[in-house]
Design goal:
By secondary structure, the protein is of the alpha+beta class. The chain has one domain. The chain has 5 helices and 4 strands. The protein has a 4-stranded antiparallel beta sheet. It is globular, with a radius of gyration of 16 Å. The termini are far apart.
């Protein structure tokens, strides 16, 4: 195993390389599971990099111009604020609140993701297709802090 100079940066770069490898393998007709790899990669990046305060929010306006999804339920307008959207998306993935949706060919083409408030009630739910999940995954990989920001105390 290769030594990491910057573990977080290497993690993001290697995740992107794995995604690209799977996409190239698929284009050559090899039997790969690109949707599984995409979700696994995004789960790793959005949880690992967000929890270590490595996602750079200064470019979120660019993400917001590119990202497309359908809000199904958004009690507190979390989807109006990019940082809240990423937090809710992270929560949905981390807690297994993800439901694949298949197209007419029985291929997964999009997902329903949801999150709950601390009381257990649904407070956010979206539909997002695979292309936009890729946009989010690549955005996170490309927009990470080299050093974590100083942590703010968590509210209880």
């Amino acid at each position: 195993m290769t030594e990491y100079k910057d573990f977080y940066k290497s993690f993001a770069e290697r995740t992107k390389a794995n995604l690209e490898f799977i996409e190239q393998s698929k284009s050559r007709g090899e039997s790969v599971f690109e949707t599984t790899q995409l979700i696994n990669s995004l789960l790793g990046m959005i949880v690992f990099l967000r929890e270590s305060d490595r996602i750079d929010g200064s470019n979120l306006s660019r993400l917001w111009r590119e990202l497309r999804y359908i809000p199904i339920y958004d009690e507190h307008k979390y989807s109006d604020r990019p940082s809240d959207f990423i937090r809710k998306f992270r929560n949905a993935l981390a807690h297994g609140h993800i439901d694949p949706q298949v197209d007419e060919n029985q291929e997964v083409s999009k997902f329903i993701l949801w999150d709950e408030c601390k009381c257990g009630n649904l407070d956010w739910k979206i539909e997002i297709d695979l292309e936009n999940i890729k946009i989010l995954a690549y955005f996170i990989q490309e927009n990470m802090h080299q050093e974590p920001r100083p942590r703010q105390p968590r509210r209880r």
